[in-house]
Structure formats: structure tokens, C-alpha cells
Amino acid sequence: MRKNSGKAMPYLVMLPLNQALSETKRLAIIDIGSNTGRLVALSYRSGYSYRLLDELRAVLRLSEGMGKTKIIRAEAFERGINALQTFRAYCAAAKITEIHATATSAVRDAVNGLSFVTAAKERAELDLRILSGEEEAYYGSLAVANSFALQDALVLDIGGGSAQLSRLSKRQFSRGKSWPVGAVRMTEAFLTSDPVKKKELKALQKHLRKTLAAEVIDLADNLPLIAMGGTVRNLADIQQKREGYPLDLLHGYVLRKEALVEIVEDLLSKTVAERRNIPGLNIDRADIIAAGAVVLQEVLELWGATNLTISGQGLREGLFYPYLLAEQAIPLVDNVREFSINNLARQYYDFAAHNEHVRKLALELFDQLKTLHGYGAFERNLLAAAAIVHDIGMAVNYFDHHKHGFYLAMSTTLPGYSHREQTLIALLIRYHRKGKPDALQLGSLLETGDMERVGKLAALLRLAEYLERSKAQRVDSLRCHLGEGYVQIEVVASGDARVEVQEAMARSDLLANVYGVKVEIILGH
């Protein structure tokens, strides 16, 4: 949601409309971590769709000065309670009555953790739930299972007080463990000089290798590594700024080991004041980011990984899914990609009959013209996805809604899709009405042949859109007849489809140009 265990229950987004449109609810998830406290406000329809409403953040540093005594110090204690009071006041003002508040490593490990929980109840009127290390790992894994199209993975969460490493097996939490090696703790325990001294770095690395080695090797199994947490996202932010990455989204971004090594070296060579000038770095993390980066680097080293994928979702989203999927024994969407696309459509243009009919017609064209384009399942799935969200720009305005839709698709996290796939879908939205397809300065996200794909798929989507011009599903089906140098599309309709045929014929130029054929569209029987 940031910038950006068994078989799942039946697929949620295919519920009949009258069943799916359940009451819209508002929920706040509060996460009190060792470094920061966050509130995420969401609206949702159970089993159907959700939308991020707002996000509040406060720097807490609860574990600051705890040391071996494991006592939340007075100033940190007050920062935490003040943040909770602020969050509670926001919920009252926003009329959010459903609140789930949790605390993790710092409160969990503190000898006065229960006193903090009591103060939260008495002074902020919040029931604060302390998560165990395994629970924290579980909810992080649940977020990954519902936001990546993966069956198996390792999930790493680096926080201020601790780090969790979990094994996701068949989309379910298999096992996991938490270690007290978070960015704040490791900074206070090892990296006390400014800039960091070499002997301090070596001591930290030795400690991490001793603490993590056996467990990392046991959990690895050459699986993809998905990483989350403020430290990880901030490191990815830095790298995106360094390389001039054209997409302002973190979820699904691949951070390569060699890039991380360069960032770590740069961070360790600078003073805290100098780090604050690094593009992409949150200034309130300048003093702890180096330790967190070293933790991440050591995990990659021990596991032998060459890269990691960033998750924009984490603990808070993991805590949310049991609410969204309350009717299911196991809170997993059946198909991440389809749920993601349908959720995007429902946020901006919830007209399922039209969207589904455009998809049907576009896929009929795709399947019957396969000898011309030669594409397979990858392209077919992209076309189907783009058809469902092709009109989301209507939420802004009818005029230029293809351009508005492109912007919405490129500025919204699309769980389950790679950045390349998201770009292709967005470009199909952009050119579903008119215009000659162009990469629009996004070429670095694409592969060879992708713009040809966009042209050929956009031609099919454009024709399907105009064959549904009245949004009345008058065209029942299509029959494509291939001749030498031409394509004849026979329209089988149950109503008067003259508008659809006329409009589609007027927009058939892209199909003619990219496929190199003459196009004929006729009414059949």
C-alpha cells in the first residue's frame, strides 16, 4: 500500500455483485515499532475491495537508550504514548471506530512493556496488543502472500529493534524467527562513532554472522527474497534516485546486491549530517540507516543472494487482511493478480458489466488472430488485465480519460505484477482510445519487442472498446475471417449494433497498421 497453509477459499472477486457490495467499513491499523509508530486508515468492503485513506507517522525511538537493562526510558515512553494519543484523536475526528493497535520488538522485550500497554489504555484509550516475534513474522508473510504472485519465498523484515526472517511455503507461513538486530539496536550497540570506524563495522559484522548464519542457511533453499520495513524501503529509495528510476513506486522494485554494496560503502563513509543530504534518504533515519543496511547486506551474503525484491506492504497490511477476508478460514486471496486488477477497477470505475464485456471481446480477437500476432499466455493475460481497468481515468474526467487512466495506473501499486508488466498495462490503457503507441520515457522498464506488443495488443483493446461503444453489451460475439492481406470481423449481435460497428470501423486504423492488413467489420447473423 505504500508509494506503494492449505488451499485458499474460493476466489473472492468473482462474487455476484449483490453479494459483493457489502457495507463499506473504515479501519485503522496502528503499529508501534522500535523506531517509528504508524497509523494506516483504510476503507474496505469485506471480501471485495479496499482503499488506503490516510497514513500517519511518528518517530518514536522506543528502544533508544534501553541497552542491556531493557527499560523503555522516560522520554521514549512519553513519545510513544503521545503518538498513540495523536492517533486516537485522528480516529475520533475521522469517525473510525474499528482500531487494531499493536506493538512489536521494543515493547515486547522491555521489562516495563506491560506498563506501556497499561498507559496506552488509560491515557490513549487504546488496547495495545504485543505481538510475539513469530506473530510479527507471520503477518509480514501474510502481506507478501497477498501482494506477490509467488508460491514460495523468504520474507525479511528489518525494523528498529528486531529483524524477522520467515519461510513462505505454498503461500502460507511455514516458519520464522525474530532476532534483536534492528537498525536502532545495532546502531547503539556497535556504530557509535560519527563517521563509523572500521573496527565498529567489523564488530557488527561478526555479531550478525554469529547470530544469523545457521538460521539463514536453514531457511534459504534458493528462494526469492522479499524484503520489507522502513530501512529496506529507504535503501531502495536511495538506489532509485541514484539510477534515475522512472517509476515512483517501491513495491516490486528489485534491488541488486552490487547496488546495495555501493550504498553501504557510501553510508559508512559519511557523517550523519552528510547522510541527510543523500537523495531518497529520510532525514530521521540518517543516524540508523547504516546499521540497517549492514544487516541487510549480511543476510544477502549469508544466503548467497544476488538481489532482493521490495515489498511496499508489511506488518500493517498483514494485520489488515484478516479483516478484508474475514469470511475465510485462511485470509488469502485466491489470485493476487486478478484481485489487484479488480480492486483497481473498483476504486475508480466500478462498472463490471462493461469492463468484463470489453475483456471478452478483446480476448476473442486475440485468440482468433493468433496466427497474425503469435503471442501466448503472457500477452493474453496483460490484455485481459488492461481491459478490466481501461476506463479508470473516467474517475477524473471523460475527456482524455485514457491519459488520466495511464497516470493512475502508473502511480498506483499493482500487487502481483512486475514494474514491466504494470508499465505495459498502463500503456495499453493510454492507447485504448486513440493515438500511436509510444514508450513515453519508460523505455528503461521495458524489454526488446515490448512496444510492438503494446501496439498489437492496444489495437485489439481499442477495437473491443468501440465494439462496446454503447456500454450495453449488444455485441454477443465476434468471428474473425482471415484472407490474403485482410481481416474480416463479423459481429454477432442480439440488438441494434450499428453504432458499435460504425465506431469500431472508424477506429480500426491501428489494427490495420500494426498487423499490416486491411480491416473489414460487418454485421453477421
Model description:
By secondary structure, the protein is α/β, with parallel strands linked by helices. The protein has three domains: 134 residues, ATPase, nucleotide binding domain (Nucleotidyltransferase, domain 5, 2-Layer Sandwich); 180 residues, Exopolyphosphatase. Domain 2 (Nucleotidyltransferase, domain 5, 2-Layer Sandwich); 187 residues, Orthogonal Bundle (Hypothetical protein af1432). It is built from 21 helices and 14 strands. It has a six-stranded mixed sheet with strand order 8-7-6-9-11-10, with helices on both faces. It has a five-stranded mixed sheet with strand order 3-2-1-4-5, with helices on both faces. Strand 2 and strand 3 form a beta hairpin. Helix 7 crosses helix 11, helix 16 crosses helix 19 and helix 19 runs antiparallel to helix 20. The N terminus is likely disordered.
**What's the CATH H-level superfamily name of the largest domain?**
Hypothetical protein af1432
Any idea how many domains? 3
The largest sheet has its strands arranged as 8-7-6-9-11-10
| Overall pLDDT confidence | 92
Helix content, binned percent: 40-55%
β-sheet strand percentage: 15-25%
- The CATH class designation of the largest domain is Mainly Alpha
- Overall form: elongated
* CATH fold field value of the largest domain: Hypothetical protein af1432
Please state the structural category. Answer: alpha/beta
Give the total of beta strands: 14
The largest β sheet comes out as:
6 strands, mixed
The helix tally amounts to 21
Which spans have pLDDT < 50 for at least 5 consecutive residues?
A: 1-20
Give me the Rg, rounded.
26 Å
CATH architecture tag of the largest domain? Orthogonal Bundle
What is the terminal separation in angstroms? Answer: 48 Å
